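Input (structure):
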């Protein structure tokens, strides 16, 4: 059974940092595109960042460019999202996602991703 499990969320103040992790099990995603999405209350699930299988191609939403960094460790089947200079507008449930195909370079569409984690809450107070 394929599972993606996020961790690292929490309650922080504006300007603080958090590092989210996503551990995959049940199959390897070392050849797969992976990404982070987020969903605030009453809003759609939005793209945050994606990273290709080798880590050489990353893509970010404009709202997080320069503040967030996506990375991965294929040996650990783990993906990360380093979030710096957090803002109240970053408050959301953060989901990790993985593509079922191999070697796709990037995608900001949630329909690309076949596998999803259960989410981790990030709350940023003013």
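Output (sequence):
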């Amino acid at each position: 059974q394929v599972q993606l499990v996020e961790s690292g969320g929490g309650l922080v103040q504006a300007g603080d940092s958090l590092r989210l992790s996503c551990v995959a099990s049940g199959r390897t995603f070392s050849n797969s595109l992976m990404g982070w999405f987020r969903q605030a209350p009453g809003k759609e699930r939005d793209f945050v960042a994606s990273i290709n299988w080798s880590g050489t191609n990353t893509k970010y939403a404009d709202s997080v460019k320069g503040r967030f960094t996506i990375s991965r460790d294929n040996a650990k089947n783990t993906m990360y999202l380093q979030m710096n200079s957090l803002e109240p507008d970053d408050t959301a449930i953060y989901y990790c996602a993985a593509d079922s195909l191999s070697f796709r370079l990037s995608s900001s569409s949630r329909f690309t991703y076949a596998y999803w984690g259960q989410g981790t809450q990030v709350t940023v107070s003013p």
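Notes: The two ends are 40 Å apart (CA to CA). DSSP finds no helices and eleven strands in the chain.
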